[in-house]
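Hi team,

As requested, here is the filled-out complex form for the protoporphyrin IX containing FE run. I kept the field names the same as last time so the parser does not choke. Let me know if anything looks off before we queue the next batch.

— J.
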Amino acid sequence: MSESEANFYHDEQIIENPRPYLDAMRAKCPVARESHHGTMMVTGYEAALQVLNNVEGAYSNACSVVGPIPGLPFEPGSGSICDTLEVHRAALPWADHLVCFDGKKHADHRALLGSLLTYKRLKQNESYLAELANRLIDGFIANGRCNVVPEYAHATTVFAISDLMGIPLADRSELLELIGAPPSQLDGDAVHKIGPDPLIFLKPRFDGYLRDRLVDPGDDLMSELVQARFKDGTVPDFDAVSALARFLFGAGQDTTSRLIAMAVRILADDQALQARLRSEPGRIGDFIEEILRYDPPVKVVYRLALRDTDVGGVPIDAGTIVTVALGAAGNDPARFAEPDALDIDRPHVRDHMGFSRGSHGCLGAPLGRMETRIAIERLLARTTRFMLSEEHHGPHGKRRYCYEPTYTFRSLADLFIEFD
Ligand code: HEM
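And here is what came back:
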């Protein structure tokens, strides 16, 4: 199928395996217009870096989560769209959340969170993560099989971020249910309904947690967040703090859960690599970095060109949505030799863009890495061998997997494994 026939934002074959489409786009040009929604698709490493670093402030993050599908609520004219964007910004999907903020507002709010996710706090959380993984494994190991996505990956990340944030124990299982799978991105109507605050359903609950901590602070992240001040000493608005807490909760679990599931999938299908990591657990970190390059949980992020600009010499008009394909950048042969091979011995294994780059680069990367490492370490330590269930995924060489219908994330819907 040619690029003009294939639709990145819609086709199930691309959701199942985005690699051929993205390779074809890169071969055409690392910065090329995609035919269906007119976005500029960036698939080359250097070009992606240039957009994400946004040195000249040519891009906004206003549409960074859902990209082109809902369409802009205004018609970009010629020249800068800065003023028009400000008039319409509040109506855009996810507009109330950090990842879509720009400029000073973004820097100020990001700084409130940045001071919370310290190395010391993560270190304190490390033993909890190992206990949690053991407890979850206890829940399924005797069965000789499990569905990794809900029973291990998703449960690990929801409980881990809940513990760090200080969500009461009694509420955690309910939150695990509530968060569930994301809505389909392939159903145009559902996407249109995404408002400026898709996490609004968590607001009463999180407002309550934060108010409790104003009166009775504990040693948790929400207690610190509710006391946090902007750099100039001013007090952030309560609703802004609530939005940050909810975004942190959301961002803190779904991406990491997808990475854990993908890591288990790869090891279950590659017994030699699994055996190697059992004997060299110190290399699990490199394995995780290599997945973030090879097939990362966040496939694409979006930027909106505020004015006429260019990437790698290709002109980008003001008002154009730029799709930065993080996984495609990580598979650019101009940057990574033999990109199609998952190679944990690759030099500069951390040079991927799995956590994005620039001022919006992932704030939770150290936590995501730690959670995934511990989940894999514990699973290897508690089993002698695990493999894919052929009943669900077919025989070796003819595997089939079900991915969630989203063009933004790379997200296994389920993953069935069996233990020896
Ligand atoms: C392996 C797991 C993770 C992956 C692959 C991942 C990926 C990403 C990516 C690609 C972005 C950038 C979005 C953009 O450029 O527009 C991002 C932003 C963000 N991530 Fe993560 N993330 C992970 C885990 C986490 C965790 C555990 C947390 C929190 C505890 C977190 C919190 C955030 C926040 C707050 C932002 C927004 C930063 C900003 O806009 O300034 N992430 N993440």
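Two things worth flagging: Residues 61, 64, 98-99, 110, 113, 161, 248, 251-252, 255-256, 259, 296-298, 301, 354-356, 360, 362-364, 367-368 surround protoporphyrin IX containing FE (CB under 6 Å). The chain has a mean pLDDT of 92.

Thanks,
J.
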